[in-house]
Recover the amino acids of this structure.
């Protein structure tokens, strides 16, 4: 190729050597290929969504749907687990449809949820302890934990030290998991009236609740645990404390005036207990507050012949009818209590364990009439509050274990 360049009035013609042209073209092609390869590698490094993977936070494990899969792996434990509580051992009590109940799998929206690996969990929790504090629904939760973790350490033994109601020690990993029964969280005690006084107004006595004093069952043990799960709610109703035996609230040793109704009392107790936890429980302790486990009484409350003999989970469009407080149904307590808890904890360093929504669907998974004793239903009515084990609490374990391990990794 000839090119001309002018210098003043002189024009000089130059020629690009053929050899130079032939060597430059492959280099340009190679450079282009390298740039294309680099760009492709950048694209490959982007995360790929998969329903089979457990997504890291902020994956919302609490929102999703139940999917029926008859090929779902069997539960990790059976009726022979030594940590069972009789009334919840639905396999031993021959509850119907247990295979169907445990064929439903919780699938979070937009991410996956793996079943807990008990060995992996205990290895990562080696030399650490997990504590539950609250009412019998936390005990229900605990029993599921103990039976599942025992798969990794069959030498586990019962543990009831430090005022624990029940628990287990897993010697292979030096891990303790235990439950401290404290239904109101605050200290409360029965103060009876004399017979003469009771006959005058029908009040047999009062339950004095010191709203600013944690119950003895857990006040001195929080430093022992590396993970704590609190709850309270099922005892905050007039079915537990009727007008003949009411709750009366005290603060700084004196009755609160004007007197509080039961939900006002719960709100004040919650404020004081959360303040105590924030102040006294070590900052390094991982703290959760489990929201309400919903009840599924149909046709009446537990003491009004209420029943839960349902064969499948509720549909999404049925949930508000069952649980919205505006409908004033017998199961309205869960959402009402939850709102009080959420309002109190929204600025606190206590994580919400919101298992309510996923559990609202499972009207089919309670012990109901299969309670292990012939006269239990006649005395107590159907159990539409606690859960069959194995059952729904096993999914709670999957979720909580994932959250615990995720937080351990980020410490």
């Amino acid at each position: 190729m000839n090119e001309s360049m002018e210098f003043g009035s002189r024009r000089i013609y130059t020629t690009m050597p053929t050899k130079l042209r032939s060597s430059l073209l492959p280099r340009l092609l190679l450079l282009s290929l390298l740039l294309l390869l680099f760009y492709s590698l950048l694209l490959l490094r982007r995360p790929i969504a998969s329903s089979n993977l457990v997504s890291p936070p902020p994956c919302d494990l609490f929102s999703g749907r139940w999917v029926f899969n008859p090929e779902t792996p069997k539960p990790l434990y059976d009726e022979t687990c030594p940590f069972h509580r009789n009334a919840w051992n639905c396999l031993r009590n021959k509850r119907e449809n247990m295979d169907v109940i445990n064929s439903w799998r919780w699938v979070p929206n937009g991410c996956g949820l793996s079943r807990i690996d008990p060995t992996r969990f205990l290895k990562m929790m080696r030399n650490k302890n997990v504590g539950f504090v609250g009412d019998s629904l936390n005990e229900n939760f605990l029993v599921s934990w103990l039976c599942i973790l025992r798969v990794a350490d069959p030498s586990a033994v019962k543990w009831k030290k430090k005022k624990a109601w029940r628990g287990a020690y897993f010697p292979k990993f030096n891990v303790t998991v235990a439950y401290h029964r404290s239904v109101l969280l605050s200290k409360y005690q029965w103060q009876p009236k004399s017979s003469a006084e009771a006959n005058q107004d029908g009040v047999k006595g009062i339950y004095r609740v010191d709203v600013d004093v944690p119950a003895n069952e857990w006040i001195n043990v929080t430093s022992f645990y590396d993970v704590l799960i609190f709850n309270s709610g099922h005892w905050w109703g007039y079915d537990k404390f009727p007008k003949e035996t009411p709750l009366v609230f005290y603060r700084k040793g004196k009755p609160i005036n004007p007197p509080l109704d039961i939900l006002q009392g719960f709100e004040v107790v919650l404020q004081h207990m959360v303040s105590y936890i924030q102040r006294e429980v070590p900052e390094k302790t991982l703290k959760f507050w489990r929201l309400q486990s919903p009840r599924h009484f149909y046709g009446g409350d537990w003491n009004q012949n209420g029943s839960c003999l349902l064969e499948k989970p509720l549909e999404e469009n049925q949930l508000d009818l069952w649980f919205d407080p505006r409908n004033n149904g017998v199961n309205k307590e869960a959402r009402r209590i939850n709102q009080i808890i959420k309002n109190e904890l929204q600025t606190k360093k206590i994580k919400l364990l919101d298992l309510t929504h996923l559990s609202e669907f499972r009207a089919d998974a309670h012990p109901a009439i299969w309670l292990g004793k012939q006269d239990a239903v006649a005395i107590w009515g159907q159990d539409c509050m606690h859960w069959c084990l194995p059952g729904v609490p096993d999914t709670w374990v999957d979720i909580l274990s994932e959250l615990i391990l995720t937080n351990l990794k980020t410490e």
